[in-house]
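Comment thread on ticket #2218

A.B. wrote:
> Attaching the input chain for the structure job we discussed in standup.
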Amino acid sequence: MPLKDLPTDAQPREKLLARGAGALGDAELIALLLRTGLPDQGVLQMAQGLLDRFGGISGLLHTSADDLKQVRGLGGPAKRAELIAVLELARRALAQQLKEREVFGSPGAVKHYLQLHLAAKAHEVFAVLFLDAQNRLLAMEELFRGTLTQTSVYPREVVLRALAHACASVVLAHNHPSGTVQPSRADEALTQTLKAALALVDVRVLDHVIVTQGEALSMAERGLL
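C.D. wrote:
> Ran it. Output below, let me know if you need it in another format.
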């Protein structure tokens, strides 16, 4: 059923304005972004289909532009651009929070931030969060990219970037495109190598976070640092 054929108080836009965004379900909020559906599929159905396909709001936010392009009805640029813009706004909102307060005051926010940046990538990416003495975010940089199974990480480059940011500590992060969040022995060895290299310039490694599209693992919480 088209949105215009719904009772006025059930139409997402009017419902939002009258009762607030919290009164809307996930599909209704997505439908507001999409605005129109397909000839054989209403916009609410299309929105629910997106949520089902990508595993809810969290999965949708971690979806890449290429993934969205494969969805029927999102092949054109307009709707896809709006969804990508929402993703970028979510990233920036989390980044602002991490810059304004101690990162580990909200470990969940750190994991979500890293998932939004890294989880949807088809290739392995190694990134570093550079933190000040109050554990607030100074910057995040993607330093190395690899294949689906291996990334070459050079400790010297990580140390140079840490010195450039004059940071006090770092959080290491990388994604596993394979979908398994468990750290490999190579991940553990790399963590120890970088920890030793950064200690030489008095920079602490606070954590190494591994992310997939559906999960994030903290090596510090697992006692692997």
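A.B. wrote:
> Thanks. Noting for the ticket: DSSP finds nine helices and five strands in the chain.
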